[in-house]
Task: inverse folding
């Protein structure tokens, strides 16, 4: 039985010689169990050493290999060729500047990630002598999905508001803020609110919902943002109607 | 980074969205389609029957609340959608959208008081 | 002395105004958003009705005649369809905005959605019969 041949149409961009990105075709003989990443590695090893792309773990936990495959953002290590047609279009993630070939400039996301304070701001010192906190299963379940983000940026690629609005913090950053806001050990919601509830935070989101549809880890950033909108709105009116109260009290108790 | 004032309009949008989701289909069915489709006798929607319902203090309140929330829901969603379609002048969009909603709110109050 | 210029030249791909036409999910989103125009329109139609009501029986009768004219009927059917799209899209999204926790278990989404559709049905039946004078 002859080996299946797939054609990858890869968007190339070489800043030193190209004025703009241009598609280049490669024919790749593939194994049945291969993913798109394997095809890219085949191209790099055998057909075109100049092809540039990010990857690392090859098992969908590091988030490095995010790219757009047949108009869907996904991890190339999770994009099985057996589920794809013989012609496969491969492009870098949308809404990010293209550095070279399939490599995008991630600086904007990195800045936004920092600005939402994605770390525990403990509400009280650790209760136990060894410095750990007690947390029930129920409390863990509240925030666990939002902690599963691997920063693959598929959500940013598909978010129209991120594409349209300079400054929007974006799904992953806001989902991570929600992860800490709903962690029972944390009391930093007020501190994060300055960014999260600002004009670059949750209020730029119009609940398109595409982010949650493409997330390879089922983080559901859309849900995180809508829940934050409700919590922030309640906070906003409580602050206006009851001045002097400490705002940003987490609602997970 | 300043906290946004969007909770005000978003709150109205969300409340309006919920109220209209429950009520608009049946209102269109009852008021606009019911009589022509023969589901409702036309005289049931005549002035003699409708006026007392709307003019009742509770009726005025409910009608005002419904119209106001519908208008502000539509205004906020229109504002964000217009931006999605490439219109970047948010200030101008706000004035038009919220202006219409505001005018409608005032008129609703005036008309209901005039009943 | 460094004579080399920066070799980096990141390319920004422009987002066209027609971005929402490119994928089905975006067209669905835009349709959902567009329903608000018809919700707003109906509120204005009702506002006119209140105005005519305030002007007396003759004015209100004329309003009803216009409301039930063929052109208005066609518009009303379209408004009805848009309103139903609004209602369904709104209710379908409620579990994301308001997850329901019972103890340490999250209630499945269909319970929340189902409750809303159930309430929608009950409210609609009640309003139709009461407002339509069929009770």
Result:
């Amino acid at each position: 039985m002859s080996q299946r041949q797939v054609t990858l149409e890869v968007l190339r961009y070489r800043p030193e010689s190209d004025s703009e990105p241009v598609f280049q075709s490669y024919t790749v003989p593939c194994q049945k169990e291969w993913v798109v990443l394997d095809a890219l590695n085949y191209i790099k090893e055998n057909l075109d050493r100049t092809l540039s792309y990010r990857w690392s773990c090859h098992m969908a936990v590091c988030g490095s290999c995010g790219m757009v495959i047949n108009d869907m953002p996904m991890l190339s290590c999770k994009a099985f060729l057996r589920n794809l047609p013989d012609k496969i279009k491969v492009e870098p993630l949308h809404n990010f500047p293209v550095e070279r070939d399939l490599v995008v400039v991630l600086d904007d996301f990195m800045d936004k990630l920092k600005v939402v304070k994605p770390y525990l701001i403990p509400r009280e010192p650790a209760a136990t002598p060894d410095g750990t906190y007690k947390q029930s299963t129920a409390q863990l379940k509240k925030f666990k999905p939002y902690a599963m983000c691997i920063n693959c940026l598929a959500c940013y690629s598909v978010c129209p508001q991120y594409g349209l609005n300079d400054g929007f913090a974006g799904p992953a950053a806001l989902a991570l803020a929600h992860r800490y806001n709903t962690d029972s050990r944390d009391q930093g919601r007020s501190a994060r609110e300055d960014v999260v509830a600002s004009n670059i935070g949750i209020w730029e989101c119009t609940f398109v919902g595409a982010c949650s549809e493409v997330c390879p880890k089922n983080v559901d950033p859309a849900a995180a943002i809508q829940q934050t909108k409700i919590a922030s709105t309640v906070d906003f009116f409580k602050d206006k109607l009851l001045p002097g109260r400490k705002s940003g009290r987490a609602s997970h108790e | 980074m300043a906290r946004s004032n969007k909770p005000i309009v978003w709150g109205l949008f969300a409340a309006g969205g919920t109220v209209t989701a429950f009520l608009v289909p049946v209102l269109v069915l009852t008021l606009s389609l019911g009589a022509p489709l023969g589901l409702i006798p036309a005289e049931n929607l005549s002035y003699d029957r409708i006026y007392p319902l709307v003019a009742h203090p509770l009726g005025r309140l409910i009608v005002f609340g419904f119209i106001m929330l519908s208008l502000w829901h539509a205004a906020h969603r229109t504002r964000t959608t217009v931006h999605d379609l490439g219109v970047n002048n948010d200030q101008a969009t706000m004035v038009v959208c919220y202006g219409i909603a505001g005018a409608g709110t005032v008129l609703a109050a005036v008309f209901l008081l005039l009943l | 002395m460094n004579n080399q210029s920066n070799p980096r030249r990141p390319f920004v791909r422009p987002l066209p105004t027609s971005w929402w036409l490119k994928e089905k999910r975006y067209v669905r989103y835009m349709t959902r958003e567009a329903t608000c125009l018809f919700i707003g329109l109906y509120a204005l139609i009702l506002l006119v009705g209140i105005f005519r009501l305030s002007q007396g029986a003759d004015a209100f009768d004329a309003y009803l005649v216009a409301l039930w004219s063929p052109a208005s009927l066609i518009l009303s059917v379209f408004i009805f369809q848009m309103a139903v799209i609004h209602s369904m899209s709104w209710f379908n999204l409620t579990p994301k905005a308001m997850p329901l926790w019972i103890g340490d278990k999250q209630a499945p989404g269909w319970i929340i959605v189902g409750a809303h559709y159930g309430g929608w049905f009950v409210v609609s039946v009640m309003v139709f019969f009461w407002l339509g004078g069929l009770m």
User: Anything to note?
Assistant: Chain A touches chain B through 18 residues (CB under 8 Å).
